Every structure is written in structure tokens, then in C-alpha cells.
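User: Please look over both lines:
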Amino acid sequence: MTFHGQKILPAAKTMKQFEKILESSYEYGVFLDTHIGQLKSIYTMARSRGKKMFLHADLIQGLKSDEYAAEYLCQDIKPYGLISTKTSVILKAKQKGIQAIQRIFLLDTIALEKSYTLLEKTKPDFIEVLPGGMPSIIAEVHQRSGIPIFAGGLIRTVEDVERALEAGATAVTTSNESLFKHYDRSVQ
């Protein structure tokens, strides 16, 4: 799946960043650090502007990241996709027909091998690889898993984005506003 030519998925950590996404040409984006009390209103705003927003389930303040929370999010909030490090959240999202993005932190070879085992179990729609500035690892994970990759974390420059995409990432998630602006078709 491609995101209609979007190279990056802008990630909102604040309402100010979310407002910038609303005003941009981006169709797809990511909600990071949100509060449970804001979810319905921000998704109403996003939908009214034609935005398809992924939601990081592990970063919702006031909501435990487990299968019951995932069920609530899938049934009541209906995000475009759920991002999580938790197996139960990924499996529930898949069961409910919501895009499931398994977030993996690649600290060392042991973490990488454990991630491959996890991916066999969850079979997510996408994998978010962190840190995203490791082109050779992105290529390896994509080749070995066959699952589309989002590269995220510590993406700071246009070169970081381009290297991740050249390595096989489908898109790059970033909260770096200069990158939002650089890749926003409405600004160019």
C-alpha cells in the first residue's frame, strides 16, 4: 500500500502540530501523545478535513494499552490504524479490521531477533522500525518479513527520509515540522 505519494506521515505530538496537519495537503498522519478526553473531538476534526489518522495506542494518556483499550478504540474512535508495541493491541486491531502497525525498537541483535519472532505471531499490516535512520536494517527487516515498513524515530533531515525510502520503507513517520513543510505538496 502506498499513501498516494506521501513520503512522510506527519506525527502530531501537540494540538498545534495537529492543526498544521489539518491545514496541509497530507491525507495521512499519526497521533502520538494524546489524552483520552480529546480522542473523539480530534478524530471528528480529522475526518471533517479528509484526514486518515493512525493512532499510537501506547501513548494515550488516561488509557491503558491493552486489548480492552484496543477494542474501545476500534469500536468507538475508529482510527485509520493503531500503532503499538503490544501484541494484544495489534491482534485486536486486526480482528476489528483496523490497520495494525507493530512498533519495534531495534536496540541490538537480540531485539531484532525477538522482533522477528513477534512479527510471526502478530502478522501486522505494517511495521514501524525505530530508530528509522538505519537503512541496512530497514532493508533487512523488509526483506525478511515481507511486511511494509514505516521508518520512525530520530529522523532529522531530508537525507534521513530519502535513505529510509531508498532502503524500502513505505513511508517515514516524523514529528519534525521542517520535514512536514518540506514534503507538503501544498507548500511547494
